[in-house]
Every structure is written in structure tokens, then in C-alpha cells.
């Protein structure tokens, strides 16, 4: 029985591979049903462009970020002191997001910033729930930084600000090009839709005065600061 199941699974995989190769070789002649099944059809989601509306700059929010955030930390030991004092909370993979490999920050935020992240996640999941991208997770690429980490970052990114709100625990970056989807293949239309759907969610929260946000083109992320 196990052998039969294994053979069937192998044949199914090979069939998908053949269909994929046929599609790539001659996409115009490949059956539309096959392309839809493989998720290769580019769908126009009729999603508006909101990324360009995220234009906040550091002078707009840095004073408030300092006021509501933590006292900035020199190194990891001071971060852990803030955690022990209840000033920062741990951020792990959530229901709708993943935390990437953090080379220049630590996976902690203030409670207010974590609540904002949770709301972004919930609204994003709801927005895409009726599409074939339902269940997609976005990736967080940066959270709380120390002055030590920031100095290291400036060694590879001279644009990193020494007055960054990441130092105060209430800012985080969300990649707009790195998503985890259930789809086998993600089209350019899918990628554009996910980016702008996420941007719309963040823009709406910005409009509600719950955050500030910036479309970071060079870093491929949305920089978000809890308000």
C-alpha cells in the first residue's frame, strides 16, 4: 500500500513538472485550465497603488517616538534589561507574519508597536482572504536596534540614520517583496497585488493616526512607526 502511494505521488509530481515545462516552453498553447491550476495565470486584482502615499519622514515623528519608546540601548545586555523590566516584548513568528534573520536588530518591540503589528497582520489577512493568495504571510526584516547595531549597519548602509526610531523600540520594517504564500507559483501580478494590498492596510492605519509609515525603495520595505 505504501509503495502504491509513493508511486502515485511520484507520478503526480512528474505530471506537474511536465505541465510546467510545457507551459514555460509554449505558454500561449498551454491549456488555460492547466495554467490556472498551476497558478501561472496573471490576474488583475484591481488593487490601487498606495505605496507612494507612505511618505512620512523622520522629523515628523522622531520626537514622539522618543517620548513613547524606550531609552535607547547600547548593546544586547541593555535590550534584555528593558525586556526584564517589561518595556519590550518578544516578537516571534505570528499567524500572518514571519520574522526574518535579524542581523542588525533584535526581535523585540514596545507593547504599543506589537499591537500595531498585530492589527496590520489582521487587516492584511482579511483583505486577501477572498483571493487565491489567502493565508499569505509577510516578513518583518528589522525591529529594535541598539547603538552598537546601528553603527555596524552604517558600515554597510550609509543611509541608516543615527536618529532612527528603531532605537526606541516602536518601529519595524516589513518587506514588500518577501512573502510566504500557499501558491506553488507566484506571478508578477501576485507580487504587485501583495505589495499594494499591504501598503493600503498601512496607509489606512496612517490615516487613522495610528502610525507613521515610509515607502523605503532602496531597502524594499515599509518602515512603520507606532504612533
Overview of this protein structure:
The protein has 227 residues and is an alpha+beta fold. The chain has two domains: 2-38; 51-226, Muramoyl-pentapeptide Carboxypeptidase, domain 2, CATH 3.30.1380. Helix content is 42%, strand content 15%. It has helices spanning 2-25, 32-38, 58-68, 76-84, 111-127, 147-154, 188-207; strands at 89-90, 97-99, 108-109, 137-142, 171-180, 211-216, 221-226. The strands form two sheets. Strands 2-4-5-7-6 form a five-stranded mixed β-sheet, sandwiched between helices. A hairpin with a 4-residue loop joins strand 6 (211-216) and strand 7 (221-226). The longest helix is centred in the N-terminal third of the chain and has 24 residues, at 2-25.
Low-pLDDT runs of 5+ residues are: none
Our count of domains comes out at 2
Main pleated-sheet profile: 5 strands, mixed
CATH secondary-structure class of the largest domain: Alpha Beta
The CATH topology name of the largest domain reads: Muramoyl-pentapeptide Carboxypeptidase, domain 2
Order of helices and strands: HHHHEEEHEHEHEE
**Approximately what portion of the residues adopt beta-strand conformation?**
15-25%
Distance between the termini: 59 Å
What is the average of the pLDDT values? Answer: 87
In angstroms, what is the radius of gyration? Answer: 21 Å
CATH architecture identity of the largest domain: 2-Layer Sandwich
Q: State the helix count.
A: 7
